[in-house]
Amino acid sequence: MRSLNKLSASEVRHARKGKFCDGGGLWLYKQDDGGGKWVLRVTVHGRRREMGLGSLQNVPLKQAREEAAKWRALAARGVDPIKERQRLAREAQRNLHLLRDVAADAFESRKAELRGDGTAGRWFSPLELHVLPKLGGVPVSQLDQLDIRDTLAPIWHQKASTAAKALDRLGIVLRHAAALGLDVDLQATIKARALLGAQRHKVTSIPAMPWQEVPDFYASLGDGITELALRLLILTAARSTPVRLAALDDFDLETRVWTIPAEHMKGREGKTDVFRVPLSAEAFRVAKLATPFARGGLLFPGRKGPMSDMTMSKFMRDRDLDFRPHGFRSSFRTWAEDSRAGPYEVCETALGHTVGNKVERSYQRSDLLEQRRALMERWGAHVTGGTGQVVKMVSG
Question: 228 lies in a domain?
Answer without folding.
Answer: yes
